[in-house]
Automatic annotation (TrEMBL), chain A:
Recorded GO CC terms: plasma membrane
InterPro entries for the chain: BPD_transp_1_N, MetI-like, MetI-like_sf
Keyword field: Cell membrane, Membrane, Transmembrane, Transmembrane helix, Transport
Positions of the ABC transmembrane type-1 domain: 97-307
Primary location recorded for the protein, binned into one broad class: membrane
Entry protein name: ABC transporter permease
Segments passing through the bilayer: 12-30, 101-124, 136-157, 187-206, 242-261, 292-314
Listed PANTHER family: DIPEPTIDE TRANSPORT SYSTEM PERMEASE PROTEIN DPPB-RELATED
The keyword Cell membrane belongs to this UniProt entry's keyword annotation: yes
Automatic annotation (TrEMBL), chain B:
Lineage summary: Bacteria, Bacillati, Candidatus Sysuimicrobiota, Candidatus Sysuimicrobiia, Candidatus Sysuimicrobiales
Main location: membrane
Organism name: Candidatus Segetimicrobium genomatis
Membrane topology qualifier: Multi-pass membrane protein
Domain ABC transmembrane type-1 stretches: 106-298
Residue intervals passing through the bilayer: 45-71, 110-137, 157-181, 223-252
Location of the protein in the cell: Cell membrane
Ranges of Low complexity composition bias in the record: 1-11
PROSITE patterns in UniProt: ABC_TM1 (PS50928)
Region (Disordered) location: 1-24, 275-298
Protein family per UniProt: Belongs to the binding-protein-dependent transport system permease family.
UniProt-recorded name of the protein: ABC transporter permease
From TrEMBL, chain C:
Name of the protein this chain belongs to: ABC transporter ATP-binding protein
Claim: rRNA-binding is one of the keywords in the record: no
GO terms of molecular function: ATP binding; ATP hydrolysis activity
Biological process annotations from GO: peptide transport
Listed InterPro entries: AAA+_ATPase (IPR003593), ABC_Ni/Peptide_Import (IPR050388), ABC_transporter-like_ATP-bd (IPR003439), ABC_transporter-like_CS (IPR017871), Oligopep_ABC_C (IPR013563), P-loop_NTPase (IPR027417)
Location of the ABC transporter domain: 8-257
Length: 321, 298, 346
């Protein structure tokens, strides 16, 4: 187990290196570097100033040298300086990370909390009214784009009915502590639902088909033949086998959630990493964009590793060697 | 629909000749496509999906004759109008006719969707077939790249990429294709790997066929069925991705309409002037998007 | 003779599918006595496994349904019990071993948990005692290092070992009846012999009555006291083990005997039964074996044959033993029966 984790961690290194090269190359190929952007339109700047500044920032060096230097700094957590926010990139990201994580975690928990019971019920009562309703819902859920659904939620709950705030993360002027948390609870439901919908739908679908498959397995018949009550057969024998594969789907969902975050956060003006990515990209603040992508890549790959480990713990057939 | 009991009770006889309805005799020269077409015709959901897609394609292709205005026409005296006979779906913040823009935006979306699917499927076939056919380190490297990129969230990277490359339809198609080939490549690799070892490939080789010929004539055509399925999924995905990027203001730029940038316009409006009824503006493009995306399930 | 332990009367189990009604079991009757081993023989699709699930009341409903008949266990009709009452019999008084040892155990639970769970349920032992009993049962089925292996998962056992686990599980509550549905079919030949030997031994020790469902006449010869031969959901011949090999009466039974390969005996070739078993939907009137039967007469395709007594404790559903058959036909049949019995060589 320990060796497996270490091996996986070691394997992550070349992957992250590869990603960093790609990201760096892309941004190096971008038209205009930091200095150009910084100085564009500033009056009284001579070409000599530009050259001097570029030398100060090391931008006159060949790309591979710059890459190595960037990597050295990035490894120490220094992703550079944002020209629009005038803050270190790492600070910017870390400040917003909590917001994104709480949104993503909320969306996943909500998705699971709805999908697992509904999926199981659907499977056990195949072709019932609720099963058809669930199928219809999953169809809707996987088809609807998150940004449209978000706008509809804002329109209905925020604008039309005035039930929940249409965007943002906290009311202005709330005192920190418990009031802030209570206030936050009003802002969470809509973006959580918007981001979670797709996963709710796909998890429901997955749970249903997984459960349908498992209840037809021979070992479920064996359990019934022992005289176990139906509830116990489902809970002890069917459920666990049906839910283990769901862990894999969770693994796929983590990058999906991270991909959905920029859209949801933009729609709801949620100050998270995703919105920061969109804003910095639109504002040509490349150092920030670069940092965020590296960050997201690490999170996605890390989640993948966690899922593999979880799978191994849950399924005794998987061995780590 | 009744289902037969659990596997492992072979005593329940599989009745008669065909399990389900009788399909046209297989192997009687009917061919693969005929069979596929037959199945398709008898699949209600698939038919409904196809009908929706067909209507959308027709309507958007005929946008010129159908649309009452040109998409860049602005009527500053009639901004934010509710639906009426003059403006079927109303007008937007600067007086564009929403119905007209919806049609033209559909054209852009479909163009992006199909182009991306073709580009991505071609790239996927090329990479997958090469990896599967030659195997070894090449396969290893290509598949590692595929695996890793599948574990990454694509949209954040697409956002940054489109900033440089996007803006135009071609740029968006290129960016989307950069990420969409992976599934196809995996699929084709798997199939080629399986087929490579079969007799007909050996037979072709024995007849002196070149690698390229074996691949192009014998192996790749046999992988096409699943590739087409994957490609239709790419169409839907690409349309959604384009809409997402345009919605964020990074994809197709106004005045060229796209379902995504129309939605963005609508959202700005909902929040800034909430008392006006906005269905006319955000409803239609979104519903169009939903339909389109839904049909990929079929 | 004493009252039978289990008596199946005119059991009918049908499946309602899109294609029509599948009459999987269509009028099965037999008696099982204490300590007896009854063989139920037939091809796949003859309804033997469906009958077993019917006795356990494990037929998936829908599409399946027990439409008629009685299953009298110790005088009580199982089909009239509530689900709750039936649950208390299942795994406790009547237990079952399935054909597929590879898939019949839950992959994510240890075998100890899986055996102990039935013991806790029916014997009301606490967890510790149940585990001790589980380990004892594993010893009884001769699993080496049983006390350590209770903590293992199914995938750590071979097919033969898993079937031993299944048997241990089935016998853990000391049931009166054990239904074994093709318990050796999925196993290697040498393992098959071991499992048969084990079951015989356990039957001696536990005094369990066994219903042995198989298509393998060799297994029947090894284990059974009495035999029911099933065809297309019906019992076409019922008799003792001795008579089925020495005086088989039904043409289908002859066919079965002809198609068994024999060691030490050079036969020119095996004689398969011509044709396919019938579809169980829209069965034509008459004997369902008639289309494949070399001795079929006019009456055979017109009316369903009843059971004809053909000897002490021996019945056959065949018009050859009625007054409908001519002397000539009876003679030809007798010759064929003799030929079939000589093959069995027992």
């Amino acid at each position: 187990m320990q060796r497996y984790v270490i091996r996986r961690l070691v394997q992550m290194v070349p992957i992250l290196l590869g990603i960093s090269i790609v990201v760096f190359a892309l941004l190096a190929a971008a038209p205009g570097d930091q200095v150009d952007l910084l100085l564009s339109g500033v009056p009284g700047i001579t070409p000599a100033d530009v050259i001097r500044l570029k030398h100060v920032y090391g931008l006159d060096e060949p790309p591979h040298i710059r890459y190595v230097k960037w990597l050295e700094r990035a490894a120490q957590g220094d992703f550079g300086w944002s020209r629009t926010y005038r803050e270190p990139v790492s600070t910017l990201i870390l400040d917003r990370l909590g917001n994104t994580v709480s949104l993503a975690a909320g969306a996943l928990v909500l998705a699971l909390a709805v999908a697992v019971p509904v999926g199981i019920y659907s499977a056990l009562h195949q072709y019932s009214a609720l099963d058809y309703a669930a199928t219809l819902f999953t169809f809707f859920g996987v088809s609807v784009p998150v940004f449209w659904f978000g706008i509809m939620l804002i329109y209905l709950f925020g604008v039309n009915w005035h039930l929940l705030p249409p965007g943002g993360i906290n009311s202005p002027g709330v005192t920190p502590g418990l009031p802030l948390v209570a206030d936050r609870l009003k802002y969470l439901p809509l973006p959580t639902l918007a981001l979670g919908l797709v996963f709710m739908a796909s998890f429901t679908r997955y749970t249903r088909s997984s459960m349908l498959e498992v209840v037809r397995q021979d070992f479920v018949r064996t359990a019934r033949a022992k005289g176990l009550p139906g509830r116990v057969v489902i809970r002890r024998h069917a459920l666990r086998n049906a839910l283990i594969p769901l862990v894999t789907v969770l693994g796929v969902a983590v990058p999906g959630i991270l991909a959905g975050a920029p859209l949801t956060e933009t729609v709801f003006s949620w100050p998270g990493v995703g919105k920061l990515l969109v804003d910095s990209t639109l504002g040509a603040d490349y150092a920030v964009a670069q940092g965020i992508i590296m960050f997201i890549a690490v999170m996605a790959i890390g989640a993948n590793l966690l899922v593999d480990i979880a799978y191994g713990i849950l399924d005794p057939r998987i061995r780590f060697d | 629909m009744a289902r037969l009991p659990a596997s492992g009770s072979p005593a329940v006889p599989r009745p008669g000749p065909g399990r389900a309805r009788l399909e046209p005799a297989q192997g009687s020269g009917q061919g693969f496509w005929a069979l596929a077409w037959y199945r398709f015709r008898h699949h209600k959901v698939a038919l409904a999906g196809a009908a929706v897609v067909l209507v959308l394609v027709l309507v958007t292709l005929l946008a010129g004759p159908i649309a009452p205005y040109r998409f860049e026409d602005i009527d500053l005296t009639a901004r934010l109008r509710s639906p009426s006979w003059r403006h079927l779906l109303g007008t937007d913040t600067i007086g564009h006719d929403v119905f007209t823009r919806l049609l033209y935006a559909g054209r852009v979306s479909l163009l992006v969707g199909f182009s991306a699917a073709v580009a991505a499927a071609s790239a996927g076939i090329l990479i997958g077939a090469t990896a599967g056919f030659y195997g070894g380190w090449l396969d290893n490297v290509l598949m590692r790249i595929t695996d890793v990129s599948l574990a990454l969230p694509d949209l954040p990277i697409l956002i940054v990429l489109s900033k440089y490359l996007g803006g135009s339809v071609a740029g968006i198609v290129f960016v989307i294709s950069l990420f969409a080939w992976r599934g196809v490549a995996r699929l084709v690799r798997g199939e080629v790997l399986k087929l490579r070892g079969q007799e007909f490939a050996d037979a072709a080789r024995a007849l002196g066929a070149t690698d390229l010929r074996i691949l192009a004539r014998h192996l790749v055509p046999n992988t096409l069925a699943p590739v087409i399925v994957a490609a239709t999924l790419i169409v839907g995905g690409a349309i959604l991705t384009e809409a997402a990027l345009s919605f964020l203001g990074i994809g197709i730029q106004p005045p060229v309409p796209s379902w995504g940038n129309m939605l963005q316009n609508a959202q700005d409006f909902i929040l800034s002037a909430p008392r006006r009824r906005p269905q006319g503006r955000s409803g239609p493009p979104a519903q169009a998007l939903g339909h389109r995306a839904g049909s990929r399930d079929a | 003779m004493a009252d039978p332990l289990l008596s199946v009367r005119n059991l009918k189990t049908y499946f309602y599918t899109d294609e029509g009604v599948v009459r999987a079991v269509d009028g099965l009757s037999y008696d099982l006595h204490r300590g007896e081993t009854l063989g139920i023989v037939g091809e796949s699709g003859s309804g033997k496994s469906v009958h077993a699930l019917s006795v356990m009341r494990l037929i998936p409903t829908p599409p399946g349904k027990i439409v008629d008949g009685q299953i009298l266990f110790e005088g009580r009709d199982l089909l009239k019990l509530s689900d709750e009452q039936m649950r208390r019999i299942r795994g406790n008084r009547i237990a079952m071993v399935f054909q597929e040892p590879m898939t019949s155990l839950n992959p994510v639970l240890t075998i100890g948990e899986q055996i102990a769970e039935a013991i806790i349920l029916h014997q009301h032992l606490d967890k510790r005692a149940a585990w001790t009993r589980a380990a004892e049962m594993l010893e009884r089925v001769k699993i080496p290092l049983a006390r350590q292996r209770v903590k293992d998962y199914p995938h750590q056992f071979s097919g033969g070992m898993r079937q031993r686990v299944m048997i241990a599980m089935a016998l853990s509550c000391n049931p009166s009846v054990l239904i074994a549905d093709e318990p050796t079919t999925a196993l290697d030949v040498t393992i098959q012999a071991q499992i048969i030997e084990l079951m015989r031994e356990l039957q001696r020790d536990f005094g369990t009555s066994i219903i042995m469902i198989t298509h393998n006449l060799g297994v029947v010869a090894e284990m059974c006291d009495n035999v029911v031969v099933m065809y297309a959901g019906r019992p076409i011949e019922t008799t003792t083990i001795k008579r089925i090999f020495q005086e088989p009466k039904h043409p289908y039974t002859w066919g079965l005997l002809h198609s068994v390969p024999k060691l030490y005996e050079r036969r020119e070739r095996l004689i398969p039964i011509e044709g396919q078993p019938p579809s169980l939907i829209d069965l034509p009137p008459g004997c369902s074996f008639a289309p494949r039967c070399p001795f079929a007469m006019e009456i055979c395709v017109q009316a369903d044959p009843p059971d004809f007594p053909v000897g002490p404790t021996h019945t056959a559903k065949c018009y050859l033993y009625s007054d409908k058959a001519t002397e000539k036909e009876k003679k030809a049949a007798a010759a064929a029966g003799l030929a079939a019995s000589s093959l069995s060589g027992s």
